[in-house]
User: What shape does this take?
Amino acid sequence: MEQTYDVIVIGAGPVGENAADRAARGGLSVAVVEAELVGGECSYWACIPSKTLLSPGAARQAAREAPGVGDPGPLDVDAVLARRDEMTGQGDDSGQEEWLDSVGITLVRGHGRLAGERTVEVVPATGVDDDAAGETHRLLARCAVVVSTGSAAVVPDLPGLAEANPWTSREATAAEAVPASLVILGGGVVGVEMATLYADLGARVTLLARGGLLAGAEPFAGEMVAEALRDAGVDVRLGTTARRVERPAPGGPVTVTVGGDDGAEIVTAAELLVATGRRPRTGDVGLDTVGLEPGAPLTIDDTTAVEEVGRDVVGKPWLFACGDVTGRVGTTHQGKYQARVTGDVVAALYGSGGDREAIVAASGARWSRYAARADHGAQTQAVFARPHVAWVGPTEAEARRAGLPVRAVSYDLASVAGAAVTSPDHGGRAQVLVDTERDVLVGATFVGPDAAEMLHAATVAVVGEVPLDALWHAVPPFPTVSEVWLRLLEELGL
Ligand SMILES: Cc1cc2nc3c(=O)[nH]c(=O)nc-3n(C[C@H](O)[C@H](O)[C@H](O)COP(=O)(O)OP(=O)(O)OC[C@H]3O[C@@H](n4cnc5c(N)ncnc54)[C@H](O)[C@@H]3O)c2cc1C
Ligand SMILES: NC(=O)c1ccc[n+]([C@@H]2O[C@H](COP(=O)([O-])OP(=O)(O)OC[C@H]3O[C@@H](n4cnc5c(N)ncnc54)[C@H](O)[C@@H]3O)[C@@H](O)[C@H]2O)c1
Assistant: This one.
């Protein structure tokens, strides 16, 4: 069977859905191809279940720190897992399917792969990372194809690891019971969030990191999270190399040998979680049929058009990519931002009311809806560990490596009245990075309770390139933790 649409989107995760929506709003007919569940990793095995599982522990911690409330005691694990199931719909994506229908987007279920320019073949899917085969359904795109197939967890080539049947973030976010003990390999975002929530749920957790924690953030952030995890009873081992994994009996305990030959140690746990990064899902999407390398991230320009793919005969790009698959972003919000650009660019290039000149003008503009410029220097990330770590823009080291003339100033949140009135234990730290030639903020990091909610003011200042003299007139209410902005500006000499 063969069908034709203006735009075909492969992958209906949060990013593909947004690209499809924006293109459809531009008057184009759109089909999305989904191999598994509409809503993608984020809705069922990532953001939504993990943040739902983390929330009760945060509430308990806040109660413990509030004078006069008392210790609420252990969490009701069954109730926490039940709430997680409610939030993920236990893998029922009919709500998302209804939404697609309501905005006039066609859903084609199956595994999609490119079969040359503007052509997508769809075969029945068995699982998103399995080789898919079967009767082929052919979709033709009059205008553009968007690849938004996301990413999958990496399992490193460590002796015995694959055979030990480890958890990845999928099993960790979907678990039906809490193991008595869990060893986590990797000290990145998944590692610290999972260590936090499994400790909350009563597991004995060991976290193995080959360096410090949260290497993408300011070093003080990882240090504060490590200290808090240790306070919560997690065995945090930094600078530790895992050598070998063994699980002699299927379903039995798993052992990880860590350290060097002279001082090897064995860590034993009921389950092992691998949290060592993700790879783009491009291994089986037909990249070879358009001259690209399967398995590699899809390199895009700022309009999200895939580089290294020829334009069509009239010079228009036809292949776009956004989200995790590009390797340029690794969060839902930054992927959806790219997707809005993708959808708007495709609509402007091919839609009936399209404004092609605007795309040309965008190439010279600092900010335009047709260019994902925030990818460079204004990305945000929030890590929902306890304390939260949230940042925008580069770290101080990254800024210096990029040759920016920066000054970093920081302030202890505990010294702000708004923190002290919440709790005598309210800790945390804020740091801003200032470009000393332009006197504007280029980055900021907040560590503390609910710090993720504090980030957006900094993001507005960075993207808006608000001069420090103007920021001085943005007055935070008293007594809030946001008053730290005043203290930071005072540190900067205002
Ligand atoms: C444990 C965990 C927690 C996270 N928490 C957060 C968080 O709190 N906040 C945040 O911003 N980010 C978080 N992330 C990151 C976030 O999940 C990803 O950035 C986001 O899901 C990327 O969206 P995407 O649409 O690009 O990819 P995905 O969500 O992976 O969606 C891709 C879709 O494409 C489909 N697909 C793949 N190949 C094909 C094919 N060939 N044919 C058809 N369909 C295909 C897949 O089935 C999937 O539905 C977390 C990640 C993890 C692992
Ligand atoms: N709150 C959020 O926004 C959120 C939450 C979870 C995940 N995510 C996203 O999901 C993606 C994956 O997260 P992640 O934590 O898996 O990746 P990561 O890149 O953040 O961390 C990977 C960790 O694994 C370690 N590592 C890598 N290879 C290793 C090996 N062979 N042996 C031992 N350690 C090894 C790294 O040193 C690092 O500490 C990221 O893009 C992240 O942004 C986002």
